[in-house]
Amino acid sequence: MDDGQLFVHTLRDLDRRTALSDEYEVLMGAALLRKLLLDQTRVMDRVNRQFKLKLRFRYVGSGPMEELILSRKPVFWAIDDALDPEQGAPFGPVVDATLDQFLARPLMLFQNEMITVRDVIDQLANVEGAVHRSTAREGREKMLQAAGQFYSRNGLSGVVSQVRLIGRITVRGLKPLHDAVIAAGS
């Protein structure tokens, strides 16, 4: 299987997992996200060397409503589906961001710590078992684990449920590359 085929199959699998409610199936989406977006030799980069597309990830940026909520220093906050501009009327500006901007986007606040897209993928992939299962060692890993246990959404732990949201945005952001690979015959 070449990089193009691996990319297409990975994206297809991620897209499938964004609609599931089985915790294991959704958790494994974090491994796919890591492979696509975080690994040192990301699949998306290897494939995009040929096409040189400027990939963008569309999400709802921080707006007045979010800023008001966060200014009140809540014990806990999660943006959940409000991050996805296709889930209803956006509470903030719709942003077409680079991968680095998307990975830095806060998703939750817990114990006065912001939890970003990157944090969620990394925690689920490397601590919670999507790729590696280990004991949370440092303060940040323990905090992320506690955040995942603090609330649940649609029958999933709060952090795992974020994988579906991150996955939907990722699939749409990588669709131009997917289409280019398919058109090229990989």
Instruction: Give the helix proportion (percent range).
Output: 40-55%
Elements, N to C (H/E): HHHEHEEHEEHHEEH
Q: Largest beta sheet: what is the strand line-up?
A: 2-4-5
Got a strand count?
7
Which stretches are poorly predicted, pLDDT < 50 over at least 5 residues?
Answer: none
Strand content: 5-15%
Shape: globular
Rg, please? 16 Å
Architecture overview:
The protein is an alpha+beta fold. It has one domain (3-184). The protein contains eight helices and seven strands; from the N terminus they run αααβαββαββααββα. It has helices spanning 3-17, 23-38, 43-51, 64-71, 99-103, 117-126, 139-150, 158-184; strands at 57-60, 76-78, 94-97, 106-110, 113-116, 152-153, 156-157. The strands form three sheets. A three-stranded antiparallel beta sheet has the order 2-4-5. α6 crosses α8. The chain is globular. The termini are close together.
Characteristic key phrases:
13% strand, 186 residues, 8 helices, alpha+beta
Gist?
The chain has 186 residues and is an alpha+beta fold.
Summarize the SSE layout with pairings.
Layout: H1 3-17, H2 23-38, H3 43-51, E1 57-60, H4 64-71, E2 76-78, E3 94-97, H5 99-103, E4 106-110, E5 113-116, H6 117-126, H7 139-150, E6 152-153, E7 156-157, H8 158-184
Antiparallel strand pairs: 1-3, 2-4, 4-5, 6-7
